[in-house]
Amino acid sequence: MGVNDASHKIISDLLEQRTGQQLTESRRWRVSTALAGLFREFGIDNVEQLACLLERPGEHHLATKVVEALLNNETYFFRDHVYFTTLANQVLPDLARKRQGTKKLSIWSAGCSTGQEALSIAMLFCEQPGRWQDWHIDIVGTDVSGKAISTAKSGCYTQFEIQRGISVAQMLNFFTETPRGWQASDRICSMTRFQQQSILDFPPLPGRFDLVLCRNVLLYFDPDTRRMAFDRLAGATAPDGYLMLGAGETVVGQTDRFESSEWGSSIYRPASIIARVGDPPKVVAGR
Q: How many CB atoms lie within 10 A of CB 275?
């Protein structure tokens, strides 16, 4: 089913206004497929009818449903496993040395989707108990999708979801099979908390994070919105902390707020030459 230009603009404008994401021409094909379930739920015949309904006053509930359906919540445990190996063996040990005095680490998973990324990081800490004994680990996951955050807060995953990215040993060690699905254990849930929030808003508390992960989110922003997002990420990252992007993302030519780190592609540090003017005045207690 094709999507005419007028209908595409109404729907793409809605998505950009709510999330900052662009529904580019290359993604137009997703519209009908992504909205098929919503058509059945509301008895809508086609995209043109939906666009007309969205133009009527008072259709906030329908508009929210459309945005949720169009968001790409694709994720899985330890996605791009090599980067988690770098976190476990290089980045986190470096942060452990820097924070030895306080034994506190704050991590932000921005665009966390249904929570697997945040829980993957929690598993890294549990798998190195000697190094992290007596540490306070706070992992905050945020996403613009209320539906995704609801799943993340539940910590419960289907058989399909639980098999993506983790070994059988990890599955049995960190999850329990229940009638509702595979439930994450208190060992990893106690380190994580989730809230619905756009990456374009000011960063969530506690403010300055030792590590920020923002992977495969910036791809959907136009250049100006991407620069704004980088400013938000820079305001959230401790001066000696790190930012991890997705495999297809880079700071090169996008922002001067970050620079490459010694840990290879996709891991960056705040640029030391940049005066951090305008950052939100939020500081982690004891930092």
A: 6
Amino acid at site 100? Q
Domain residue limits at 60? 5-70
The answer to whether residue 54 sits within a structural domain is yes
Check residue 287 and give its pLDDT: 32
What residue type is 222 in one-letter code?
D
CATH assignment at residue 250: 3.40.50.150
**Is residue 83 packed enough to be buried (19+ CB in 10 Å), middle (13-18) or exposed (0-12)?**
buried
What percent of the chain has pLDDT above 70? 92
Residue 196: Cβ-neighbour burial (10 angstroms; 0-12, 13-18, 19+): middle
pTM: 0.87
User: Tell me: the pLDDT tens digits for 1-17?
Assistant: 456 788 888 988 999 99
| The pLDDT of residue 45 | 87
58 & 173 share domain: no
Domain identity same for 56 and 85 = no
If we measure between CA atoms, which residue out of 179, 178, 162 comes closest to residue 77? 162
Whether residue 209 sits in one domain with residue 131: yes
More confident site: 274 or 4: 4
Q: How many CA atoms lie within 13 A of 68 on its CB side?
A: 16
19 in the same domain as 117: no
Q: What is the DSSP code string of 186-220? A: HHHHTTEEEEE--TTSPPPTT-SEEEEEE-SSGGG
- Quote the pLDDT of residue 2: 54
Q: Return all residues near 126 (Cβ < 8 A) that are at least 6 apart.
A: 174, 187, 188
